[in-house]
Amino acid sequence: MSDSRRLLFYILALGFLVMIISAPIAIANGYSKNLSNMIPEIESRRAILLNSSASSLTDSKLDYSIVENFHNLGFKRILPQLLAHVELRFNDKLIPVRVRGVESFETFYADRGIRVNGSTPSSNLEANIGILLSRRLDLGIGDIVEIVANNDVQKFRIVGIVDCGCPCDDELILSLEDLWMLKPSLSDKISFVEVISHDHDLEKLNLSSVKAFLEKPFSQASTTLIQETFNSVRNWAITIQLTILVAAYFTASKISMDSERELVILRSIGATRKKAFVYVFFKSIIVSLLAIITGLAFGTITAQIVFRSLSILLSAESYTPPGLEPFDVLWIIGLSLTSALIGSVYPALKASRRDLGEEEW
Q1: Do 141 and 134 meet the contact criterion of CB atoms below 8 Å apart?
Q2: What is the pLDDT of residue 190?
Q3: Which of 92, 139, 94, 147 is nearest to 118 (CA)?
Q4: What pLDDT is attached to residue 87?
Q5: Prediction pTM value
């Protein structure tokens, strides 16, 4: 095989390894961008406000007047809630349960996306029950339960069963007024309040004895999750760098063996060992650089073909073409070139130290 063909083979072999790294990263970048573009822009912000000295939601106690303050500030979506523990009796079973008092069932359920089998309470002494709690007690719509609180017993009729895959599935849900009636010591108190706004800057809320926990907008949180998921592809790419290091070593060794004739000629005309080392070393590095550029190009082309094929199969009307970010290009070139440098040093050093009498050609 001629020298030019051997060098082309080395370039393609190393370039193939670089392509294995760059193509999946380009595809991951493409899917990350396209999935992020599919998420609707929901700019509303949410904050959960509770007592600054509370260690949990059930320990927190706020005056209900804070809700009126938010109304005066122009907030439209306000969800005050009160959490308490009572005992529930049904069919001679008496078990402790958690109760959630809400101001508006419709607003609360719509915000949570809660499904209700039956109806929401429309009058006093009516309640909804979580699906898990209803199964545990074998309760159904229309059943009457007794709630024991403060040595007092009140009967409530179950009018609906909620199913949301959230804590409400294992709770009894009452109106705030009914829960205040059951727990007079908590009258005009709430555990926390959620406020949702499109216009107000929730980060500037400054209320005494109250701490606020801000949630990211849905679109921002979803985009971050998508990016973190596809960024994990870069983790396994680092292991491929070890393969490039080994491949660069063997490539440099082969180049030094293929360059024996040139080395003998250089040494015969007076070239020093240093110049012989530089000749083999830089020849290996140039091959590695060409391989990296080739691998990045073929990796991007492969990503385009694979991504386009999948888009056709999935009947996607439009898509953002996949590609490598500048950071991706820099770290792939940096790590690959570092691997090539490390792998080329010893073969070049070994070839430069070889005595002329050892050469056979």
Answers
A1: no
A2: 93
A3: 139
A4: 92
A5: 0.53
